[in-house]
Amino acid sequence: ASLASAKSSAQTAAGQVDPGAPPHLQSGTVFQGLEYMLNQTNIGENNNKYYKAQLIETPLGVSLFTKWGRVGAAGQTQIVGPVDSDHAFQLFCKKFQSKTGVPWDDRAEIKPKRGKYCLVEMKREDTSAPNTPAGKGPALKGPVSCSLDRETQSLMELIFSEDMFNTSMKDMNIDPEKLPLGALSQAQVQRGFEALEELQSAL
């Protein structure tokens, strides 16, 4: 596999250079579609860690930037390069496979594996999407009455309480605005909702 072929088949917009990258990479450009965010969560072993990689081009050449650590922490970083572009791409793919157990070309079919990282789909800014004119969007429905018993309602209110979330994050010295996973895509959020629905059905 070569960097040129990967660039020609990329379907996503180019990303932004990670703020944790050194100054000489901040002026560079992330190759379109050639970055990934991984996450591994294991409640039993108290693991909740991330691994991020970007292929960045600067006037000096191509570098592989990686960043990893516990979610909510600054983590560690590593830069390999500048190196030959195809060599950088091979390193990029090798890192991905070692962390996920899946080749880069098969990432669309990735499934969770024990002891491996999962691919996290990130949200990207789409400036090409037209804005919906005021008053032209779908009509909003009024509040829907809840049929749950009061105890269950209280539990749901607690789970989805933004104040409780922010307080808990502060207690753990975590800034919600600086989480390393960034903004999740709508598809990633939807998969989370589906998992919660499966859990609700099981209960």
TrEMBL record:
Keywords: Glycosyltransferase, NAD, Transferase. Residues 1-24 are annotated as: Disordered. GO terms for cellular component: nucleolus; site of double-strand break. GO terms for molecular function: NAD+ poly-ADP-ribosyltransferase activity; NAD+-protein mono-ADP-ribosyltransferase activity. Residues 145-203 form the PARP alpha-helical domain. SUPFAM superfamilies: Domain of poly(ADP-ribose) polymerase (SSF47587), WGR domain-like (SSF142921). Residues 27-117 form the WGR domain. This is WGR domain-containing protein. The lineage of its organism: Eukaryota, Sar, Stramenopiles, Ochrophyta, Pinguiophyceae.
